[in-house]
Amino acid sequence: AKITFIASNGSSKIAEGFGGSLMELAVSHGIQGIDGDCGGVCSCATCHVHVAPGDMEKTGPASDIEKDMLELADGADEFSRLCCQIQVSDALDGIQLRVAK
Ligand code: FES
């Protein structure tokens, strides 16, 4: 799936992935602002992204554990997800994610 990441400075980068999590995809493509400090176990919020509103249907909502973590993240809103909790699949092709500041 091809995923567009939009950095906080407005620049965008398309990353193509076939498995693993969106956090791993972002880190392997050097997406600025996605650090993945906890290694993808939903405990650091350094992989916080805002899903484009029209793409929320594809990613689905955050889980309860994820929501608890997002409460601690700056600027979280209803489109927030921790992208280590989203697995790359064909269903996500074309989605846009804005990296949280
Ligand atoms: Fe730590 Fe996603 S990488 S919460």
TrEMBL record:
Cofactor(s) needed by this chain: [2Fe-2S] cluster
Species lineage: Bacteria, Pseudomonadati, Bacteroidota, Cytophagia, Cytophagales
PANTHER family: FERREDOXIN-2, MITOCHONDRIAL (PTHR23426:SF65), FERREDOXIN/ADRENODOXIN (PTHR23426)
Record-given protein name: 2Fe-2S iron-sulfur cluster binding domain-containing protein
Family: Belongs to the adrenodoxin/putidaredoxin family.
Residues in 2Fe-2S ferredoxin-type domain copies: 1-101
Organism of origin: Algoriphagus oliviformis
Any Pfam family hit: Fer2
This protein's UniProt keywords: 2Fe-2S, Iron, Iron-sulfur, Metal-binding
